From TrEMBL:
It comes from Amycolatopsis tolypomycina. The keyword Transmembrane applies. It comes from the Bacteria. Keywords: Membrane, Transmembrane, Transmembrane helix. This is Uncharacterized protein.
Length: 89
């Protein structure tokens, strides 16, 4: 009778391990799918040249990349330092 209980306990332990393995496999598969989708998205984005930030005397300028300055909203000028949109190195 004792060996029957041991067999049931071993069977339950195996079932618990396999049930715990399923979330791990699903998590790894979804991470791989999201990584693949991100890589495909970045790879298919066509950009002429990579963007660079160039620092001048009093400001930083973004040069190159996929950003078209004509599509950006106009910003107002703010006086003094620390205003919205100012770059303070």
């Amino acid at each position: 009778m004792a060996s029957g209980n041991d067999a049931n306990a071993a069977r339950r332990a195996r079932a618990t391990r396999s049930a715990g393995l399923l979330p791990l496999v699903v998590g790894l598969a979804s991470a791989a799918a999201l990584t693949g989708a991100a890589y495909f998205t970045v790879d298919s984005a066509s950009c002429g040249s990579p963007a660079q930030y160039i620092r001048h005397d009093s400001h930083v300028e973004l040069v190159g990349g996929c950003v078209d300055g004509a599509n950006l909203p106009a910003t107002g000028t703010s006086s003094g330092s620390g205003g919205h949109g100012n770059y303070n190195p």
